[in-house]
Write a structure and sequence with these properties.
This protein is mainly α and 178 residues long. The chain contains 2 helices and 2 strands. The longest helix has 104 residues. Strands 1-2 form a two-stranded antiparallel sheet.
Amino acid sequence: MPAIGLMPLSWRAAGLVVLLVVLAAGPATLAWRYQEARYARQLTDQARLHAESLNQLTLAAAARQQADQDRRQALEQQLATSEHTHYRALSDAQRDQDRLRDRLATADVRLSVLLEAGDIAPGCAMPATSGAGGVDHGAPRARLDPAHAQRIIAITDAGDRALIALQACQAYVRALIR
Protein backbone atom coordinates (compact mmCIF):
# COMPACT_ATOMS: atom_id res chain seq x y z
CA MET A 1 0.00 0.00 0.00
CA PRO A 2 2.67 2.41 0.43
CA ALA A 3 2.93 2.54 -3.33
CA ILE A 4 -0.62 3.74 -3.57
CA GLY A 5 0.06 6.53 -1.13
CA LEU A 6 2.95 7.66 -3.23
CA MET A 7 0.95 7.83 -6.34
CA PRO A 8 -1.32 10.65 -5.29
CA LEU A 9 1.72 12.54 -4.16
CA SER A 10 3.47 12.18 -7.51
CA TRP A 11 0.32 13.32 -9.29
CA ARG A 12 0.24 16.24 -7.01
CA ALA A 13 3.82 17.03 -7.75
CA ALA A 14 3.26 16.65 -11.43
CA GLY A 15 0.20 18.94 -11.25
CA LEU A 16 2.21 21.47 -9.28
CA VAL A 17 5.01 21.37 -11.85
CA VAL A 18 2.49 21.83 -14.66
CA LEU A 19 0.89 24.70 -12.78
CA LEU A 20 4.28 26.35 -12.25
CA VAL A 21 5.15 25.96 -15.93
CA VAL A 22 1.83 27.51 -16.98
CA LEU A 23 2.29 30.38 -14.55
CA ALA A 24 5.87 30.91 -15.65
CA ALA A 25 4.93 30.79 -19.34
CA GLY A 26 1.95 33.14 -18.86
CA PRO A 27 3.93 36.37 -18.43
CA ALA A 28 6.16 35.43 -21.38
CA THR A 29 3.08 34.86 -23.53
CA LEU A 30 1.60 38.14 -22.35
CA ALA A 31 4.87 39.91 -23.14
CA TRP A 32 4.90 38.29 -26.57
CA ARG A 33 1.33 39.34 -27.25
CA TYR A 34 2.08 42.91 -26.09
CA GLN A 35 5.11 43.08 -28.35
CA GLU A 36 3.10 41.66 -31.26
CA ALA A 37 0.40 44.29 -30.77
CA ARG A 38 3.03 47.04 -30.55
CA TYR A 39 4.64 45.88 -33.82
CA ALA A 40 1.21 45.73 -35.46
CA ARG A 41 0.54 49.35 -34.37
CA GLN A 42 3.96 50.41 -35.67
CA LEU A 43 3.33 48.72 -39.02
CA THR A 44 -0.12 50.34 -39.25
CA ASP A 45 1.36 53.77 -38.46
CA GLN A 46 4.15 53.20 -40.94
CA ALA A 47 1.67 52.18 -43.66
CA ARG A 48 -0.48 55.25 -42.93
CA LEU A 49 2.56 57.58 -43.10
CA HIS A 50 3.68 55.92 -46.31
CA ALA A 51 0.23 56.36 -47.84
CA GLU A 52 0.16 60.03 -46.75
CA SER A 53 3.60 60.71 -48.24
CA LEU A 54 2.60 58.99 -51.49
CA ASN A 55 -0.56 61.11 -51.56
CA GLN A 56 1.49 64.28 -51.02
CA LEU A 57 3.90 63.28 -53.78
CA THR A 58 0.99 62.59 -56.13
CA LEU A 59 -0.57 65.97 -55.35
CA ALA A 60 2.76 67.74 -55.86
CA ALA A 61 3.32 65.96 -59.17
CA ALA A 62 -0.20 66.84 -60.32
CA ALA A 63 0.31 70.49 -59.35
CA ARG A 64 3.66 70.57 -61.15
CA GLN A 65 2.09 68.97 -64.23
CA GLN A 66 -0.76 71.49 -64.19
CA ALA A 67 1.70 74.38 -63.86
CA ASP A 68 3.73 73.01 -66.79
CA GLN A 69 0.58 72.65 -68.85
CA ASP A 70 -0.49 76.22 -68.00
CA ARG A 71 2.94 77.54 -68.99
CA ARG A 72 2.85 75.58 -72.23
CA GLN A 73 -0.62 76.91 -73.08
CA ALA A 74 0.46 80.47 -72.30
CA LEU A 75 3.53 80.03 -74.51
CA GLU A 76 1.40 78.58 -77.31
CA GLN A 77 -0.96 81.55 -77.10
CA GLN A 78 1.94 83.97 -77.06
CA LEU A 79 3.53 82.27 -80.06
CA ALA A 80 0.21 82.24 -81.93
CA THR A 81 -0.18 85.97 -81.30
CA SER A 82 3.41 86.58 -82.38
CA GLU A 83 2.93 84.46 -85.49
CA HIS A 84 -0.24 86.38 -86.35
CA THR A 85 1.57 89.70 -85.87
CA HIS A 86 4.47 88.66 -88.06
CA TYR A 87 2.16 87.19 -90.69
CA ARG A 88 0.29 90.49 -90.79
CA ALA A 89 3.58 92.41 -91.12
CA LEU A 90 4.63 90.08 -93.92
CA SER A 91 1.34 90.46 -95.77
CA ASP A 92 1.44 94.25 -95.32
CA ALA A 93 4.97 94.37 -96.73
CA GLN A 94 3.90 92.14 -99.62
CA ARG A 95 0.90 94.38 -100.32
CA ASP A 96 3.12 97.50 -100.27
CA GLN A 97 5.63 95.85 -102.60
CA ASP A 98 2.83 94.82 -104.97
CA ARG A 99 1.47 98.38 -105.04
CA LEU A 100 4.91 99.79 -105.74
CA ARG A 101 5.49 97.21 -108.47
CA ASP A 102 2.12 98.10 -110.04
CA ARG A 103 2.87 101.80 -109.88
CA LEU A 104 6.24 101.20 -111.53
CA ALA A 105 4.59 99.13 -114.23
CA THR A 106 2.01 101.83 -114.99
CA ALA A 107 4.66 104.57 -114.91
CA ASP A 108 2.97 106.36 -112.00
CA VAL A 109 6.30 106.23 -110.21
CA ARG A 110 9.81 106.17 -111.60
CA LEU A 111 12.89 105.21 -109.68
CA SER A 112 15.86 107.48 -110.08
CA VAL A 113 19.34 107.69 -108.66
CA LEU A 114 21.26 110.70 -107.49
CA LEU A 115 24.33 111.45 -109.59
CA GLU A 116 27.54 112.96 -108.37
CA ALA A 117 28.57 116.12 -110.11
CA GLY A 118 31.88 114.55 -111.17
CA ASP A 119 30.11 111.61 -112.89
CA ILE A 120 28.25 113.80 -115.38
CA ALA A 121 29.96 114.07 -118.73
CA PRO A 122 30.69 117.65 -119.80
CA GLY A 123 28.20 118.92 -122.28
CA CYS A 124 25.60 116.30 -121.27
CA ALA A 125 22.57 118.03 -119.92
CA MET A 126 20.89 116.01 -117.18
CA PRO A 127 17.52 117.24 -116.04
CA ALA A 128 17.46 118.22 -112.43
CA THR A 129 14.28 116.77 -111.03
CA SER A 130 13.02 118.49 -108.01
CA GLY A 131 9.58 118.30 -106.63
CA ALA A 132 7.58 119.37 -103.67
CA GLY A 133 8.67 116.28 -101.73
CA GLY A 134 12.26 116.28 -102.92
CA VAL A 135 15.16 116.85 -100.57
CA ASP A 136 17.84 116.99 -103.24
CA HIS A 137 17.38 120.67 -104.02
CA GLY A 138 17.76 120.21 -107.73
CA ALA A 139 20.67 117.74 -107.72
CA PRO A 140 21.09 115.86 -110.99
CA ARG A 141 19.27 112.50 -111.10
CA ALA A 142 19.06 109.70 -113.62
CA ARG A 143 15.93 107.59 -114.11
CA LEU A 144 16.27 103.84 -113.95
CA ASP A 145 15.03 101.53 -116.63
CA PRO A 146 11.65 100.00 -115.52
CA ALA A 147 13.08 96.45 -115.74
CA HIS A 148 15.97 97.43 -113.45
CA ALA A 149 13.52 99.13 -111.11
CA GLN A 150 11.43 95.93 -110.97
CA ARG A 151 14.56 93.93 -110.08
CA ILE A 152 15.44 96.42 -107.34
CA ILE A 153 11.91 96.17 -105.95
CA ALA A 154 12.17 92.35 -106.01
CA ILE A 155 15.46 92.53 -104.11
CA THR A 156 14.03 94.88 -101.50
CA ASP A 157 10.97 92.63 -101.25
CA ALA A 158 13.20 89.63 -100.51
CA GLY A 159 15.10 91.73 -97.96
CA ASP A 160 11.89 92.86 -96.28
CA ARG A 161 10.68 89.26 -96.07
CA ALA A 162 14.02 88.18 -94.59
CA LEU A 163 13.90 90.92 -91.96
CA ILE A 164 10.33 90.03 -91.01
CA ALA A 165 11.27 86.34 -90.78
CA LEU A 166 14.29 87.24 -88.64
CA GLN A 167 12.10 89.29 -86.31
CA ALA A 168 9.69 86.36 -86.05
CA CYS A 169 12.55 84.00 -85.17
CA GLN A 170 13.91 86.43 -82.57
CA ALA A 171 10.45 86.81 -81.01
CA TYR A 172 10.10 83.02 -80.91
CA VAL A 173 13.45 82.57 -79.17
CA ARG A 174 12.65 85.38 -76.70
CA ALA A 175 9.35 83.69 -75.88
CA LEU A 176 11.06 80.35 -75.31
CA ILE A 177 13.72 81.87 -73.10
CA ARG A 178 11.13 83.48 -70.84
